[in-house]
Amino acid sequence: MTQVASPEAILCEFDGVELKAGKRTYNLERRGDEFWVEMDDPSSDSQSEYRPRIERKVVMTTGSHHQQMYWLGDEGDRKVQYLPFTYLTKEKRWITRDASFLSPPHRKRTPQNGTWNIGCKNCHATHGRTKLTGSFSEYQTSSMDTQTAELGIACEACHGPGQAHVEANRDPLRRYKLHLSDQPDTTIVHPGRISHTRSSQICGQCHSINFLPSTDELSYWSEHGYRYRPGDDLSETRFVFQLNQNLDAPIRAQVLSDPAFVRDHFWSDGMVRVSGREYNGLLETPCYQRGELSCLSCHVMHKTDDDPRPLVEWANDQLNHTMEGNGACLQCHQQYESDEALAAHTHHSATSTGSSCYNCHMPHTTYGLLKAIRSHQIDIPNAETQQLVGRPNACNLCHLDKTLDWTADHLYDWYDIQKPLLAKDDREIASSILWILRGDAGQRALAAWSMGWQPAQQASGTDWMAPHLSNLLVDPYDAVRIVAGRTLRTLPSFADFTYDDAGSAKQRNDAAKRVVKQWGSSRPAGDSFRGRPLLFDANGERNVKEIVRLLRKRDHRIVHLKE
Amino acid sequence: MTEETADETEAVDSKRPDIMRRHVVVGWWLLLVFLTLGIVLESLHGFKIGWYLEIDNETRRLMLTLAHAHGTLLGIVNIVFGLTAGMLPNENGRLRRIASPMLIASNLLLPLGFIFGGLYFYGGDPGLGAVILVPAGAMFLFLGTLLAVLDVTMYRQKD
Fold it and tell me: Which is nearest to A232 in space by CA: A202, A207, A211?
């Protein structure tokens, strides 16, 4: 969410920090309760290395759980520009803003004036209105008088406009009449008291891939904000893009005129693959389509009194504390409530992570915020889908040391899911290694993250992972390297491994070699990881020939996941 | 003084120790009970009891604090009223006799109303105890105080 930049909101050590992006230097300074950045003048046309220097005040921040970024004001103008760096709150370090997204390595964006005004405020503030004077194509040079009802996602974002509610409830008789009855207050929207579809649309107004239904709406939107109000039918004022639905919608052609649109948001079968678009997943879910599943089936927007978790922990996913286990699914699928029935269904011990409904039916196949996130399209593991679409299946995201053939065999034996005809590599080599070596950047990021996921480490063992992760320390995508470096430090004997994901190519190469050497000198005896699936020979040495072969088959298509 | 006035004076005189004693006793008991409530509330603070301290229980905290404050102050008011009744001469004793039950009523209604208003509440609104009992108690307190003011004032005017 967005906040005014204040000592309470800013999470990083700010004063005296020097940040470099290429040849540009940014000096951060705290002056009392104000935060300033001294930097090259971005509006200067000078091609010289020495551009004029200016100072900009940090006026707002966005983010707090995982990352924080900073917005710079411009005197006399209400447009804000982002500081091209992101602060990682847990690791307490800075990365470039480009590195915080899974974006192509050649694509280095210059901070644009007005980005927050046009885009970010739509979801990171409440009832934002751009108020652009000029055309959208020239927004960087047009002036804006952007307004919001509140910074951040405030009450009215979910409950609708509150003025009538406040005025009506000044009357104490009205208030006590409502207190003593079960009747809803008609002057405000209660997301828990409306249908599951309308309730989910409240979240979907931001947590979806959506567009204004026509460009004619742009002017209205710029001046007055979105027409949608909580409780309305979202589809009346916004087009939520689904790859395989609403094929006749006029806006589709315009959206699909961008050839990269589908690639940047979806797996090829239409399942969304970027974070923050959970409503798209929900729309495709049978539990929502045929049942009454809604966002509020699992999530709570206000921490409940009986929730024993600290506020910070609840705020991470805003999951109801009773839904951390299988409770969410057992609300409807009560036939799996007993340990015996659960184990019979999952073919895993009832107390193991293999019996967690989430792990099989909502695996970590969406990406965002430098991590893998659970898909919100409730689905079943399927080997054929992985082969055709490339999306990792739930089984192999935990059993990282197993092949797709192994998974297909079990799915057939346990659930009668027809085994597809698999390619040789899929039959013989562990899926996670195939993702790392020949997958696209999105698959590599998911693989790297999964190797640091504790249930997967427990199921797969970790003594074989380091040399494979070393391939990702030299990955061309910044985000993949960051995720791989983090995962590496979760492995035994690598907790203190020093690696600069932003270092030079030589430094990264050297780091990768150090990993292999360190792994070689500390690898355990025994044959737990030897053999073709993990690309180690009988002596426990890496099968370099196979590794090179697979690297040559890497999917180099451009991936730019639009979180 | 006429015989009738002397009889009336004797009747009021015989009631004056009752009023005085009643309010002095009630006052000290109120002090004891509601100072004890104060100790209990402090303990809830000390042991960080969520039922009292959690952010969603602000209305409860306010109501119980008000119960403690009003109960304690009413104790002092009663003691003062009792001592005043003992100090004043027997003329206008009728005002004291009417004021006394009003103060007794407010002793019950005000602090109990705040307590009930805090035990069960509706978000930012106190429970019905506060809504019904407290205004009634406030009204009796006001009337009782008004009568006491008239009582004392008329005594000064007489001098």
Answer: A202
In this complex, is the C-beta atom of B54 within 8 Å of any C-beta atom belonging to chain A?
yes
Interface pTM (ipTM) of the complex?
0.71
B129 vs A contacts (CB less than 8 Å): none
Phi–psi pair at A17, nearest 5 degrees: -85, 135
Sort residue A212 into left (φ over 0), alpha (ψ -120 to 50) or beta: beta
Give A494-546 pLDDT, tens digit per residue.
999 999 999 999 999 999 999 999 999 887 766 667 778 999 988 888 999 99
Could you give phi then psi for residue A139, rounded to 5 degrees? -65, -25
pLDDT per position as a tens digit, A13-46? 999 999 998 888 999 999 999 999 999 987 776 6
**Closest-CA residue to A230 (of A196, A184, A198, A187):** A198
Q: In terms of pTM, does the model score above 0.90?
A: no
Question: How close is the nearest chain B Cα to the Cα of A179, in Å?
Answer: 7
Which B-chain residues 107-146 have CB contacts (< 8 A) with chain A?
Answer: 122, 125, 128, 131
- Give the alpha-carbon dihedral of B114, B118, B122, B124, to 10 degrees: 80
Would an 8 Å CB–CB cutoff place A305 in contact with chain B? yes
Q: How far apart are CA A110 and CA B83, in angstroms?
A: 83
Please give the residue of chain B at the shortest CA–CA distance from A174.
Answer: B125
